[in-house]
User: What shape does this take?
Amino acid sequence: MSGQRVELEVVVRPSDQEVGSKETRGRFWLSAGKAVVIGRSLQDADLPINDDPSLSKRHFSVAFDGQRCRLVDLASKNGTIVNGNRVGSVDLHHGDVVCAGQTVFRVNVVKDAIEPTDEKKEETTILSAERCEPSPASPVESQSAEVPPASAEVPPVPAESLEDDGPYLFLTLTVIETPSVSSDDLRASRMMAWIRAGQTVIVGRAPWESDWTFRGDDRMSGKHFSVTCDGRKCYVSDLDSANGTLLNRVAITHAELCEGDRILAGQTEFAAQIMGRE
Assistant: This one.
């Protein structure tokens, strides 16, 4: 998996009526040397999913060392299922399906992308609006980290060890309006991305330039804006987009994000929710 990173895609949440619905419920990116704890509790999990009562407070962890992606069940009450089998720990691969409580995740191994030629660009028209193809220049989770050798067991990393003892914030962006998806489907899909401390995520229309892509919005630039969180504050930056990025209907180049802020890029609008522990 060298030169790659892992995306955990939430495809089913407890309130969903149809398993395997076409829209993505949420995304979380994990780069080499990083680990994340998934569970129900905001205080105990790095990626909390608090609308699932069947999840344990700390349900399972996923660690990626650049070569192996390792899932470890954290003595959860209801267990963790990978591809239909209950597991204690297991290596994850592209396309694996993880079930925890009533939440279902798909594992995507995402390669660093190179901008295609004109011929290749034509082929990318078949991509869905929500496909994630990161740019090699994307500084997602750019903090350096000690990476264990591929042959070593990758242990779960406690949430408190991922950051210092100070305040720890992370950001979720939820799509509330976009031409890529009908209004009825959008209400059902709750498209969302999680941005943890140390991560930067680029949003745009071109899959070879952005991490989170919206090909159905022709007013969005290929690389439109970025969001980042340093653990204490979260920021949005316009990336020289053609139509600008609006924060609460005001054009910005760079600004701090606050709870409830709205970001408008092209015809797609996002709501920011800032979560964390003091």
Summary: The chain has a mean pLDDT of 75.
